[in-house]
Amino acid sequence: MNAKGLPLALLLLLSGALGAEPRYEDWTKYLLSAPDYRLEQIVKGKWPYLEVLRKDRLQDYQKGPCDPQKDPQGCQGRMPWAEAQAHEFYLPLSSLEATREVARDLRRAWQRFEERYYWRVITELNNPAFWFAYCWAGIRGPELAPPLPDFRLQVPSEGVDPAFLDAATRQGPLDMGRWASAGLHSLDRYLPVPQVDPREFCDGLGMQILPLMYIPGFKVLLQGYEVFRTPGYPSKPLWFNWDEANARVERAMQKALTEYYLDYQKEVARILLTPRPSTPQEVLNLLGGDFRSLGAPKAYLPVPWQGHLLGGGSVVAPVYTELVPTDPTALWNQVQSLWNAYKGLIDRAGSEVEKVYLYVHFYRAARTLFDSKAFYGLPGMDAVKENLVKLVEAPLRSLAQSLPVLRGCAGSLDQVASCAALALKKVDLAVKGVGNLQDLGGGGQAEPIKAARESPGLWKFEEAKRWLPPSSLPVYEAFGYASFFQAQNILEATTVPDIRNIDLSSVNLGNWISWAWNQLSRLVVYWHVPLTIDARVEYCPPCVLAYPSLPLEGPVQPLAISPYVLPFALERTHWRWISVPEGYEVPGVRGTPYKPLGDLSALTSLVDLSAFYRILLGR
């Protein structure tokens, strides 16, 4: 619960430069609150969502209407009333599995571009031989079929309060996670044949014999003995048309980095901005008729927050693992994973008082979850509640007796937790007043707390929620956080395939061989054929026969052509999953939800998502 009394408030920080030590109020522009998790509404056929409040507009709206013509003084410094009224936005929730499928399709879109890029360059350079093989004969490999990418939670360093990060890393490194897409802009297998239809890179390309590209290198044998070879044989041709080779490569790269790249961006926009299923009724049909049949309906319902293009913001989708858990054992395992994440961070970063805060609020959140009407009558919940008591009771009682401010708390575990919660209000006041827990904690550490005076809740307890994984709707509501899928373009200067794509976390011979093959198999080379002319005296009656034969000193030879590797210095689409605590900022968003930038609208014919979701949400 934040200072405004909202049940789940997530304050969104617009990405961009921040001044030194800003007040928390100055960071925030959006407030995500009031997720509609009412199960009776879902059963009635209304999709769950998060509400987004535009904070500055809400503040002006709460002041009431203002007419600058009638009251110019009173309206000074305020936005137009119509703008203040437009302060609410709604974000429908999507399933985690559906966002993984979106991530897989984004991978395939990149792989398609990478294949078209390379095979256009190599085919045009080696025309006519490769033109005959691919464009005319249609030789190709298997279809691109990347697997579902693994879920990987990112804890973005730009989203975590620096004071918390400093406290949590004093005892050693802390894994902040990477973009889930890191290292995935590559093919699953690099093959010597294209894995796309040759028509995708042969467009507008005809057989080209002239100008002549090269005169092959050769050697002459007489009766099996070598009598002459050209300089550099077999590695070098006798003569090579470097100007034509460079012109072909540049021409092919120009086509790929304009036309094929635009196709890539169009495909990405279509993938990111197309709801799945594609109509509101199909989405609503995924809902069952009662709580037990809700399950985890697979739906992807994106919101362009200015869109994913560079300089924009992101395409976002709040995610759930399932609408309502139905397996008490799985639910308990998930609650334990939340506890492990919390405790590991608070043990690193928290004082004794903050550890009590963790025990108390974790216990009360879990009790609220287990007492939810979503679990009424579900067999096995009594055992789950007993497990919770065993997890929390002993350490909470021990800490309560060791801290002066909590020594009066006694009785049942519920009584101790309620008493401690009331006492910990003093902690909030102390933190917001001076940022020092030493007096209350009886020897706790004193440390500067950035923005603690305005931040909702005890900041370390809230910041730790960034490490919590996606979950079900009741877990989000009880623990006060939500997880998001987020996609945005990042400007990169690299090569194709990406030379950085090697997993250094487990370096072994297999990794290095795979990486080396990927790089070598995509070098920009002209393949030339060294010849052998074998002159022999044969009885036919006696005559001299001279004929070319297959090269005897090596196969077809590669000749490296500038730029040798395929460069890439443009935007690529990345994706990640992040968790956001109640009342805190979401990194990577700008502008207004449902307001795509003009460039994005030009890429694809956008579905009217606002109209789509009004039907879905009943608002």
Helix tally equals: 20
Helix/strand/pairing class, anyone? alpha+beta
Strand content: 15-25%
The span between the termini is 25 Å
What's the shape?
elongated
Assembly state? single chain
Low-confidence stretches: 1-27, 435-454
Number of strands: 17
Largest sheet: 5 strands, mixed
**Average pLDDT score:** 82
Radius of gyration: 32 Å
Structure explained in plain terms:
The chain is of the alpha+beta class. Helices cover 37% and strands 16% of the residues.
Task: Show the helix and strand layout.
Layout: E1 10-13, H1 24-27, E2 28-33, H2 39-43, E3 49-54, H3 55-62, H4 81-85, E4 88-92, E5 94-95, H5 96-125, H6 129-136, H7 162-168, E6 214-215, E7 218-222, E8 225-229, E9 239-240, H8 242-273, H9 280-284, E10 303-305, E11 314-320, H10 328-349, H11 352-370, H12 381-402, H13 413-423, H14 425-433, H15 438-441, H16 459-463, H17 473-479, E12 481-496, H18 509-520, E13 525-528, E14 531-538, E15 543-549, E16 557-560, E17 566-581, H19 598-603, H20 609-617
Parallel strand pairs: 5-11, 7-14
Antiparallel strand pairs: 1-2, 2-3, 3-4, 6-9, 7-8, 10-11, 11-12, 12-17, 13-16, 14-15
Helix pairs in contact: 5-8, 7-10, 10-11, 11-12, 11-13, 11-17, 12-13
Keywords:
elongated; 20 helices; signal; alpha+beta; five-stranded mixed beta sheet; 619 residues; plasmid; disordered N terminus; four-stranded antiparallel beta sheet
Give a quick summary of the entry.
Keywords: Plasmid, Signal. This protein has about 625 residues and is of the alpha+beta class. The chain has 20 helices and 17 strands.
